[in-house]
Amino acid sequence: MLGKLIDRKGEEYQIAPLISVIIPIYNVEKYLNRCIDSVINQTYENLEIILINDGSPDLCGKICDEYSKTDQRIKVIHKENGGVSSARNVGLKAAKGDYIAFVDPDDYVTRNMFEKLNHYREESQADIVSCCALVENDEGVIKNSFFKITNDSIVVDKQRAIIQLVWNNYLAESDRYIDIGVPWGKLYRKSMLTDNNIEFKESLRRQQDNIFNLYAFHNANKIVYIDDPLYNYNYTNISNVFSKYVRDIDVLFTELTNETNHFLKEYGWFRNNEIQLAFSAKGTSYLISILALKFFNKDYKVSSRDRINSVKRLVSSEPYKSSLSNVELHFFKIHNRLLVKLLRTKHYLLAYILFKTSAYAKRLLSNQYS
Predict the structure, then answer these.
(1) What are the respective helix, strand and coil percentages of the chain, to the nearest 5?
(2) Is the domain of 224 the same as that of 278?
(3) CATH classification at residue 105
(4) Element (H, E) at 261
């Protein structure tokens, strides 16, 4: 733990703080060795490495146990499958470190990541320090920044961070694949999390990370971002569930939007005009996605009348009704501006006919924003 010792000359020196690295693990035996090796071989050695085997059906549990025999810093916890949020929360409760870091089991980190994150933390005394990432996909390896900056690092304005968490396209700062809402590639001061009862909401099935970081960023005394890709994100192992019909997409997105709405109201962020605009854009973008992936999707097997009635109910319900009324159209590409106008004027059948053209549907699913 953090503290001071006296050397042989009677001079005080600082102990490096203990960093608890939490790795939630499920069905990733193909990548797990690479991940764990990248953590145990860090230049920063004062680590507590917590491997959470979330009821994985493959050999992940055995791999974790074998590693624990070779490195005393490793703690293995086996639990019934409860999802990634449940696994991370178990890790948070078990962690004894001064700082918390998360690593996903199919990713890996550069050898000096924790040394560098801790250096900036020590220099700034920030509650959160974040780096950017290298994204590995079928096209190769691409740097993914979270903020557009001219220096190596910045102290992030809290409003700027919250806006990106609400809707990352509002400021158009983060790159194509991921934004600042991910929990990995960061150091969190543990006391900041525990003092404010911040953990992952296990009831949410999507983007729990984003909600976690809304509360963390709001409560942090300072947030530092370094534009150095110290984390390697494996995008090739991501299954894109949002590229085809999703039966409960309306429930998923409504849960997430309501959770964001609750946070913004509770902490007074809705008094900020830019936050209001970002939230309206977020709600509208989710509405468009729900139409594309469910109600206007060819695999939604209902009559045209039932389809249109479903859209009517969705558009007239909150938060989509307010979002649609208040959103500024310039955030969206031209084809989606037309769709928003048709929905605002309650021309639902025309909106459906427009969507049924294959070229339009393809554009809608590929990219919504200007």
Answers:
(1) 45, 20, 35
(2) no
(3) 3.90.550.10
(4) helix 249-266
Q: In angstroms, rounded to a whole number, what is the distance separating the alpha carbons of residues 291 and 58?
A: 37
Residue appearing with tokens 């973008």: 285
Q: Are 173 and 147 in contact (CB under 8 A)?
A: yes
Predicted confidence at residue 362, as pLDDT, reads 57
Total number of domains in the chain: 2
For 125: left if phi > 0, alpha if psi spans -120 to 50, otherwise beta; the answer is left
Measured CA to CA, the distance from residue 280 to residue 166 in angstroms comes to 10
How crowded is the C-beta side of 53, counted as CA atoms within 13 Å? Answer: 21
Mean pLDDT along residues 284-301 = 88
The total number of residues shown for the chain amounts to 370
End-to-end CA distance of the chain: 48
Radius of gyration of the chain (CA): 22
Going through 46-117 in order, the beta strands assigned E by DSSP cover 47-54, 74-79, 99-102, 108-109
For 275, the domain range is 241-366
Question: Phi and psi at residue 128, in whole multiples of 5°?
Answer: -135, 130
Q: CA dist 243 to 116, 133, 261, 290, 360, Å?
A: 37, 24, 26, 11, 15
| Residue found under tokens 């304005």 | 157
Statement: the pTM of the whole predicted model exceeds 0.85: yes
Q: What DSSP state is assigned to residue 291?
A: I
DSSP 104-130: -TT-EE-TTHHHHHHHHHHHHT-SEEE
Do 84 and 52 touch, CB atoms closer than 8 A? no
Lookup: tokens for 212: 């976690």
One domain, residues 217 and 352 = no
pLDDT, mean over the chain:
89
Report the alpha-carbon distance of residue 262 to residue 305 in Å, rounded: 34
Choose one of 237, 253, 280: the last residue of a domain: 237
- Residue 217, pLDDT score: 98
Residues 78 and 180 in one domain: yes
Give the C-alpha separation, 104 to 354, whole Å: 40
pLDDT, tens digit, 9 for 90 and up, residues 163-213: 999 988 777 676 667 889 999 999 999 999 999 999 999 998 888 999 999
The confidence score (pLDDT) of residue 370 equals 46
